[in-house]
Amino acid sequence: xxxxxxxxxxxxxxxxxxxxxxxxxxxxxxxxxxxxxxxxxxxxxxxxxxxxxxxxxxxxxxxxxxxxxxxxxxxxxxxxxxxxxxxxxxxxxxxxxxxxxxxxxxxxxxxxxxxxxxxxxxxxxxxxxxxxxxxxxxxxxxxxxxxxxxxxxxxxxxxxxxxxxxxxxxxxxxxxxxxxxxxxxxxxxxxxxxxxxxxxxxxxxxxxxxxxxxxxxxxxxxxxxxxxxxxxxxxxxxxxxxxxxxxxxxxxxxxxxxxxxxxxxxxxxxxxxxxxxxxxxxxxxxxxxxxxxxxxxxxxxxxxxxxxxxxxxxxxxxxxxxxxxxxxxxxxxxxxxxxxxxxxxxxxxxxxxxxxxxxxxxxxxxxxxxxxxxxxxxxxxxxxxxxxxxxxxxxxxxxxxxxxxxxxxxxxxxxxxxxxxx
Length: 422
Prior knowledge:
Aspartate Aminotransferase, domain 2
């Protein structure tokens, strides 16, 4: 397709967009009375309009049924989380039995480390990407210290090559081979939060397991954004938040994938709680833990249904649309955004650098050479909600559920004016 940097062309793309109607199913903020252009679905997705009804249903059940809502609500609370497994399994490429929803992302990563990071005298090292998301870095460091190990010796970070903004798969594979039988765990972000790079998860998983390591993935920026096939790739575990591309609300519940080979086992180490026990025996109050025979065995506490309700509302939309359709629009709208950026760069003779490689999802990270924070502030003041990362990178994530092609054109015009005025 030959793109054009015109409002008419953008509107033509919107007119033929099969997902265009979903834009009206989300609440948008306003700045100076105008609906914003929203580029931060990679940080917090917009609220679906149907979410309120899902939350209100629980509030009404609580009002009318009180404690009996656990069993007699239309969607009983005691197994509410189970409703999320099947739709989520389609999003991440897993079996429903391999999915559970609980806690929040870093909490879940810590809990998964109990099961999948079991360092020995010989095999104890963890491999991750250089400058992983800070929460992951803190999690790694604290887990390593908890086991009485030295962070500098234990944590192996794969670096980018000098002068490059992305990681090369061959460098990751080479580092896995180099560490070899000392490697206990490979745990990377499936999509890097800073540059938007999608890692070759299948190849990396295969390489890590070939040297005898467990392989897990932090999919915070991947779920609902890129194609995933966790079961087929044979990953051991994964976890993700739900408030970015999954649109479930700020700080909301985290999804977890655990390969079925670990289900039904009583010998696997994990921190256990009431809600991980079999439903059939849970209320017998037995002193011995009797694990669920699926990923729910890793549940600790009863489900926070008020948090899960927005997630269920959003997953209903994913069920309606399907990941293939979302990915098709994602590719088209991101390509159009890239075209717009290059056109504006040419028109104003600026010096943008897109540091996101071709292995990408919804996000484009743009180095604003010669520009500074004042341009970002200008964009925000003029109704473009985007994201700033030091030293001078803006992250643009046109989520396909609710961003339009006309948004991309309008952003380009505001960007051009901002460069000229700041």
